[in-house]
Amino acid sequence: MAIFVGIMTTLLPIAYALFFVYLIAKMPVFGRLKIKRSIVAGIFVLKITFGVLFLWLYNGQFEDRSKADVYKFFDDSAVLHAAAGDNFGDYVSLMLGYGDDQDLHVYHDEMQNWIRQYDHGFSNDNRFMIRYNALLRWVSMGNVWCHMVITNFILFWALILLVLALSKEHNFGWILFLGFLMPSMLFWSSGVLKETLALIGICWFIHALSNIKSKPFQSMVIGLLALLILLNLKVYLLLFLVLSLAVYKLFESKSSLKFNGQKYALFLAVGALIILGIGQTNFGKSKMEAIAFKQKDFKNIANGGVICKNDTAYVFVPDEQREICIIRDDQVQFVPGASFSYLRLPNTKDTLQIDDYHSSATFDLVFENKKSGSQVYVPALDNHLGSFVKASPNALYNVLFRPLPFEFSSALLTFTSLEVLLIWIMVFAALVYSKPKDHIQWNKVFASLFFVLAVYYLIGVSTPVLGAIVRYKVPVLPFVLYVCCLIADWEKIGQKKPVLWLKSFVLQAQHQA
User: Fold this and answer.
1) Which of 115, 123, 448, 512 has the most CB atoms within 10 Å of its CB?
2) Is 166 exposed, middle or buried (0-12, 13-18, 19+ CB in 10 A)?
3) What pTM was estimated for this model as a whole?
């Protein structure tokens, strides 16, 4: 039996991959880019290869599966999927998010990530990821490699739809398609992560809007699916996307740089302030306060260490002092003579210090993590707009220019630093070889640029780890390339030798497509 399971673990994802390659060869949508289907299929296979690399690295990096984003949702989905056999009504309630939590607590308790350790009042995106993986289990036989292959095909299809939507009035669709080869896109979007599904939602949302007149019913269905994804995963992406598109539509008839620049700056600044300042999260916090709490918790995770508690104390032990903790079965004891800081419960206002601790008392483990190797400085936020303004320069620097080459020993971050350099080369080339100002569609430029910078800013002010910053930027990377494509004069650039070589390659790829 074990041999059969091992064979199926290997063969089933390969069978899915071959089936999807067949679909790429046959489905009309994959031929609309006028690029050889063999090239399109080859890039899909490359993406699957990076998915294999992604899972392999995650297998080696995390000894505890419950701490790996890929596996913690996948493992919890087994509990949800099993509910279908135990009580199908409970399964439906868990999948759709209704019903009395008291009746379902037996499932909640068994899943380690259904209730988030850190909650800031936003939607619980963990549950959506668990539900998504539980849905895939109906066709994956509980094989995580199948989840990776299926998700990569859905994303690849969605990215094709995005390219077709963005290049509908232009001839640079093949350049956007080559953007799939950017290192961050290949690696971080190849795993079953929140960013992967969020990118699918963005692609579907824009595709639905661009085809709402020609295919109203299909577009409505795809648009609703996109809303379902973005509202449950990354609502800030949806808010900034809708704001960008709304202002674009408002000034669609205007094309001058001066008019668009002034109006966009005014309307988008006001819109961003409204998003940050008005309304409350589920816990009654303002959005600025919730973002500040999220940053603080992220810093605690990045600093690493051990957090534990009992009925009278809440204890934090820095990563450097981990050796004073004895951890067994989610219980913590301290070695004789230990020194540590703690908060007295239930009053948690003052931090107290205890030295030369001698007790066999046990504490419940709340959090254990190693210190992040790519931590960067981010100014602390509070519930005031001034702190967000003060944090802006450092936040944008981290997002726009880092990681610097060889800034960290991580091979992945070094590789990503080359991508950052490549992006700035593309931006510089687009500005140097730009179209005449009156030939540039400034509405599209400003709408896309605002979407990118707004997302970048929010990532920058709340995220103190470069590895996470690189990952969180993935859903907006296609729009960075899109802005460059809108500004650049491809006739000028096409006269350069490297581009001539690339152009000949693409023309050859388009031949007999």
Assistant:
1) 448
2) buried
3) 0.85
